[in-house]
Design a protein that fits this description.
Shape: elongated
Strand order of the largest sheet: 1-2-3
Oligomer: single chain
Structural class: mainly alpha
Helix content: 55-70%
Order of helices and strands: HHHEEEH
Mean pLDDT: 82
Strand content: 5-15%
């Protein structure tokens, strides 16, 4: 499991660099793909996409490290080691589950109830969600308007 951490970080870094370079290309002179007000809207869209990628990948790395801690084993590791979030924050946890979509660790209690713990900071989840929403909204606006071009004028 620990081997996925570098892969996630390298993939996220590649996407972040891609989004930032695309945003930079839209701002620099000679970028003819984006003109007028579209140039003003495309840069924040790429920056939001880079921010969402960075925040989400940091949350995934935290969850992967949480899973690594749980699978570490050793003395005093049943059901989890002493430094696992389910054991640190709750009493009576018998199992755990990780939700990568919402970036949460859910602990299963003795009575079967599920409780979430704060292993991924709330600010990181909010940053990922808000910047992804911003990228989607700005990208949707750009796509909706991209098909509309000024009609060709015919001189008679």
């Amino acid at each position: 499991m620990i081997l996925f951490v570098p892969a996630v970080l390298l993939g996220a870094l590649a996407l972040i660099v891609f989004f930032l370079l695309r945003g930079l290309a839209a701002v620099l002179p000679g970028g003819r793909q984006w003109s007028g007000w579209r140039r003003v809207a495309v840069v924040p869209a790429f920056v939001c996409a880079a921010t969402a990628t960075a925040a989400y990948s940091m949350g995934v790395v935290i969850l992967l490290l949480t899973m690594t801690v749980a699978e570490d084993g050793g003395t005093d590791s049943a059901p989890f080691p002493y430094n696992h979030p389910c054991r640190e924050q709750l009493t009576g946890a018998v199992d755990y589950g990780v939700d990568f979509l919402t970036l949460r660790t859910e602990c299963v209690m003795e009575d079967g109830a599920r409780r979430t713990v704060d292993d991924v900071p709330q600010g990181l989840r909010l940053t990922a969600a808000a910047s992804a929403a911003g990228a989607v909204v700005l990208g949707g606006i750009l796509l909706a308007v991209a098909g509309r071009t000024a009609p060709a004028r015919v001189d008679q």
